[in-house]
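User: Before I run my own analysis I want an independent prediction to cross-check against. Here's the chain; please return only the structure tokens and, at the end, one sentence I can use as a sanity check.
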Amino acid sequence: MRTKLSDVLTQTHGHMVIDGSMSTGLELLGCTMTDSLWTAKILAEQPEKVKEVHLEYFRAGADCGITCSYQATIPGLLAHGYSQQEAEEIIIRSIKVFLEARTQWWEKEGKTAGRAYPLCLAGCGPYGAYLADGSEYRGHYGVSKEVLQEFHKRRAELLWQAGADLLLFETEPSLEEALIEAEIAEAMGADYWLSFSCQNGTLTNEGDSLTDCAKILSHNHPHLRMLGVNCTPPHFMPEAIAALQKGTSLPIGVYPNSGEIYDAKTKTWHGEREKQQSFGDFAKAWYLAGASAVGGCCRTASSHIKQVDDVRNKLLGRD
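Assistant: Structure tokens:
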């Protein structure tokens, strides 16, 4: 039986904690992220490392985790010499590894601590992530809707059939791609969450109004369970939350990056983190602005998620 988002939100009193970056967690374990397959390379070759990252986030306080499938795409894996069957097995593995980590943590720590049973969020990156050139921060791919549908459909089917609780279509630069993903999920009868990458607090990276996105997606999409923003600088979050609230009554989840800039050529992040306040202080502001779920994306680690959990506990009077 799948865990429901609504149950976790109820158990966490509307203050769910999302995990942090898989890539940063893997880097802290000594992995290199310069290959175009990015985290999917580690999933294919060292799945035990992926499991350890999941465990670290559960220990830090995460009530849900994102599978290591953002960059695990069939065309991307085929281009690296894997067969169709091998590519599909690697995608399914992302769910299996997560479920193994969840069961291990739950039996050892989570159950006795009275924690929420973590949601398995199947990470579905945008078409731009497959291109491995930073297109998820620009959009405007120049491909047809049919290409996008074919790209997303099989992976979504594999992840859902393998046991994900929700499909998480994340870092989406455009409403067009989000609508295609929504159509796929609705046809499958799969619950899902859509999260946009944004150029500021009101517009997606392709220039769509966040409020308009929320209004359009909230209509006639019964399996949509949450909307949000991710891999966007932290200081945009309060305005983004407000923009989404104007268009939807669905819960909102935010998990920004550190504020650094991604270099697609070197597959590295540069510049400085936003340091005017701690990540915990940021998280407090986002919860108070109306976010129901808060976590971190690129360049965040378990230490950041621990800060989110600490803030959540203070807001709920648990300290």
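Sanity check: Residues 110 and 314 are 20 Å apart (CA to CA).
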